[in-house]
Amino acid sequence: MTRVVGIKDVAERAGVSVTTVSHALNGKGRISPQTRKRVNEIAEQLGYHPNGTARNLAGGRSGLIGLAVAHPGEGGFVIGDYAYFVEVISAASVAALDRGYALMLVSAAQVESWMGIPIDGAIIVDPVTCDPLIEHVRRTGAPLVTTGRVPGARHGHWVDSDHRVVTREILDHLAARGARRIALLESPLTTSYALDSHAAYEEWCAERGQPVITAVAREDLTEGAGFEATMKLLSRARPPDAVHSTLDRLALGALLAAQAFGLSVPHDLMVSGGADSEACKWARPGLTTVEQRPRQIGAEAVKLVTALIEGREPERSQVHVPTRIIPRGSTKRGVLAPVSGTPAKK
């Protein structure tokens, strides 16, 4: 059997005290950058992993990080039905274990589920306006990180995609392929991603003289909600020739609505979604979407909250994770000449 490498082994190899090794690995103490780097390199070479339980007990911590996905309203939704949330939570769990913490998934529907549990910090995914979870965590004094900003808040620690930028990019993508009446199919305006997407869409329309055409889906955010909202859009006297949705499941519902109307996608109606999933890849036609990198978002959130828990200054308080458009068959038209002097994007 392979012997477990301990902190004394690292100290002996580095020629320093156990205290120096502990401080070097935890980012504490007055140690030269060279010594800190050397100790970390030796620990990695030896395969040393700190005893997270012992470290947390010594620091008066429980080793628990609470995570919850906020609900946008009374309707709520099932977290497991959304690939984005599953990937955020999965990556956050792995990142927490790597740092000696356990991730505890708690229900956003019951704020009292947080009461009496000694969490060291909390991550809240897509916080909503006047979120009771945010208020509860703040009252406990535990470090808080959100994925997506708290709506209306100017400060705080968060990890997010730049939804304003990517919304404009995908609208340019649709316009370059001939769309002249692009509708926005959106979730309720209670999260920062919904608010940012809506603001970017209105700005983009104003700059190009395009009419603002929006539909807010019901709060369960399913394919049925997307279908229902898109049917209303297509029933207008002057229907849109493209629909961009803030969520993948709403966009999949838009594809079903186009089929119900007897429309050909992408020739009669182009459709795009604001997040990617396996279902988008296998839709017919394949759905053009945005890669949000949820696994990176989950890992960055844990990195940020553990730094706060351990009293270390994070490299950045707010982290923007890059995105990219994934073009598929639902927008596969030829790229036309730029409109109103705006360069076309491929």
Structure in words:
By secondary structure, this protein is α/β, with parallel strands linked by helices. It contains 12 helices and 12 strands. A 6-stranded parallel beta sheet has the order 2-1-3-4-5-11, with helices on both faces. Strands 7-6-8-9 form a 4-stranded parallel beta sheet, sandwiched between helices. Strands 10-12 form a two-stranded antiparallel ribbon. α2 packs across α3, α5 packs parallel to α12 and α7 crosses α8. The C terminus is likely disordered.
Shape field: elongated
The main pleated sheet reads as: 6 strands, parallel
Helix content: 40-55%
Number of strands: 12
How big is the Rg?
24 Å
**Overall pLDDT level:** 86
Q: What is the succession of H and E elements?
A: HHHHEHEEHEEHEHEHEHEHEHEE
Structural class: alpha/beta
**Percentage of residues in strands:** 5-15%
**Termini gap:** 56 Å
- Given as residue ranges, the uncertain stretches (5+ residues, pLDDT < 50) are 339-346
Helix segment tally = 12
In which order are the strands of the major sheet placed?
Answer: 2-1-3-4-5-11
